Amino acid sequence: MWFLWGILSAVTFGLSGFLMKVSSARRGSTLYTLLGLYLTGTLGFFGWALQTETLRADLPLLIAGIVIGLGSAAGNLLFMKALDQGPASLTSPLVNTNILLIILFSVIVYGERLSGTEIAGVILLILAVSLIPFDPDEELKIKNYRWYFLVLAATLLFTLRNGGLKVTEEMALSGTLVLFYGYLLGLVWFAAEGLLRRRSGTRKEKAPGNGRRALLTGLGWGSLAGIFSFVGMQLYAVALIDGPASIVAPLFATNSLVVAVFSILFYRERLSRLQTLSLILLFAGLVLVRI
Question: Tell me, what DSSP letter sits at residue 208?
Answer without folding.
Answer: S
